[in-house]
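Rotation project, supervised by the postdoc (A.L.). Task for the rotation student: set up a whole-complex structure prediction and record inputs and outputs verbatim in this book. Inputs entered:
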Amino acid sequence: MSQPDAAADPLDGAVIDARLHALAAFTDVPGQMTRLSLSPSHKAAAGQVADWFRAAGLEGVHLDGTGSVVGRYAADRADAPTLILGSHIDTVRNAGIYDGNLGVLVALAAVEALNRSGRRLPVAVEVVAFADEEGVRFLSTLSSSRALAGTFDPACLDEPDASGITRRAALEAFGAPVEAISGLARDPARTLGYVEVHIEQGPVLEECGAPLGIVTGIAGASRARVVVRGQAGHSGTLPMVLRQDALTAAAEMVLAVEARGGRDVAPESLVATVGLLEVPGSAVNVVPGEVRFSLDVRASDDGVRKAAVTDISDAITAIAARRGVAAEIVWGHDAPATPCDPDLRARLEAAAATLGLDAPSLASGAGHDAMVFRGIMPMAMLFVRSRNGSHNPREAAEAADIGLAARTLHAFLLGLGA
Amino acid sequence: MSQPDAAADPLDGAVIDARLHALAAFTDVPGQMTRLSLSPSHKAAAGQVADWFRAAGLEGVHLDGTGSVVGRYAADRADAPTLILGSHIDTVRNAGIYDGNLGVLVALAAVEALNRSGRRLPVAVEVVAFADEEGVRFLSTLSSSRALAGTFDPACLDEPDASGITRRAALEAFGAPVEAISGLARDPARTLGYVEVHIEQGPVLEECGAPLGIVTGIAGASRARVVVRGQAGHSGTLPMVLRQDALTAAAEMVLAVEARGGRDVAPESLVATVGLLEVPGSAVNVVPGEVRFSLDVRASDDGVRKAAVTDISDAITAIAARRGVAAEIVWGHDAPATPCDPDLRARLEAAAATLGLDAPSLASGAGHDAMVFRGIMPMAMLFVRSRNGSHNPREAAEAADIGLAARTLHAFLLGLGA
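Outputs recorded:
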């Protein structure tokens, strides 16, 4: 299915879903969906996407210096501003087929429908399939969307992957014109904004029975590594009252994190998670002397997040002091919340309403390419109901919901010309 | 220092401590104390111990079929019963130099002192350096003491180590007459009992400022593996109220284990420990879907232990049900408590009193060769104050305390002739 069926409606969810399955054939690991950034399967997928872009009527289709596939649907007039539609086609290891790819193919479908009907808008539409969103292969991530935002960091070109291949060498093997990266920054004064369609990756839309949701903003995130040091001992010979058990202390901390995360509710959407927890050198008959765990705190309101970070740090310190163990907390990654543009949100909401849909508002707890445009140009996101989270082979979106997303984005584009 | 100094007092703690350090030269891994059962360094250590046994006046010194070094100090009469003194000379990986070895060298010193003074007792004294106590190399353990108890299981000869070498092959390479194992069982009717000196491996004696302690019994132990299964999810997109977090559930279980273990105090010496805890497939941004942990419950009273096991199982089941996760508990290893013989205990206590020592009674939370004699012959243990637990390079006993243990054991032996 390298060429679209000329008879089929490009906004038909089944047509988009069939393309998603066809694109899933491009994988580094046969039998699963693994398409790491700038890998050979990514290169082949980018070629397929470029073919679809051209067949849909996009012009100037090319690979940019960061490996993104870019195409343009011209406006009805000269000097019109540009709207960017995009998402990414790289994946995590053993991924699902919807994360990222769905947003690219829905954007493609909306523009393809415009082209079929011969409709031009007072804005040009750029469709972009970003190359670097998942951050699995190299240390940093979002380099391809940052290039458009004008915040690309050239130092990331020297980052090696696990095999020692630098991002620069990977880009050159990919066929990307690395030397052109510095010219990729879009002029915010001539750009209407960035809009991304993406699966929700969470259960909120499923829980409230809505196929689509309007994103209020992308949550800010704080991450930390905590090391708890007690005193190891023999599980049979060390009386309970003399223990400085690092694991029971950590258990109390994990529960404190959960309790603080659950105290505030929507719309700030605070979440607090201990995802990693390790007991180095552990054995069934050893009282744990050391535990290491991670913290991940997110909220769509930075004040709510920072208050939770402070409270969690205080709780961990207090638990450690009471139990006579040491706790070292190192807060690292700290990303501010990125609010979506109110006007673009309202336009997406109105577009959904033309289909009779009452699309609820919800925050994005996950990061997306969209967040790099914070403070640079307006940004909005449309979420599609999905099952089983994301980053696993069971992630899923219904073809009918995908079709509603495409029709909503199409109506949104038409609304720009109204 | 392959031969003892004829001028030195064998009961001098510094002399015994010097031998402990000399014996520590026999290690599989230079720079640390690693002497796995039946390894080349164990063979060399056994040779050194045999030399010391002979020089101390023990007769018939030999390697038995399980790799133990055995020597005998004859009684003052024919048909006298035998008392067995022993401990082990195998170690864990990266061990200390006192665990096991100290008990062998203290027993040797006590008999050496008898021999120096030309004193014979109305009982023969056998000194044994067991070959297989730590259970690091092969699946089962305590095979060398079980041979004396008459409970050696020939099936253990076919157990392979990690390199595929069977215990039988290792014994043959060690020079042990495997074919003679079935004849090693001692006749309980002609054996007074078994007495073992060992470092405490815990902080109780240190806490109460006593150099020696009389063991009341070896705790019984129950072990289990617990698997908690919730639902994995994205740490940013899964709201707190919709989570089935396996790690927060496990944290609550860990605290329940700690609380139940701490409820009862001495003399039952209940302890309950989660030593291993793993979060398979974990990541900083993933709500944990599965956690595996171990349980280790010990008490010197079997009723106390079994009540705790029941309560802990019930608590884990209740926490899982309340949190909507699944918990599977599989209780495996179950060893009954082994009480020490009251008469031997009283004799050890009286022997310590001859040195002006008030040796407190305490339970052994760790297992020892002594426990294989449960129900077969009387058994008692003398603990020596130690620091930093055991099974690590920092475990330590003071030379002065070692000397007190040797003098107490010597006085105990003299008491048998009184």
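Student's summary: Residues 13-218+337-416 of chain A form a domain with the Aminopeptidase fold (CATH 3.40.630.10).
Supervisor addendum: The first strand of chain A starts at residue 59 and ends at 63.
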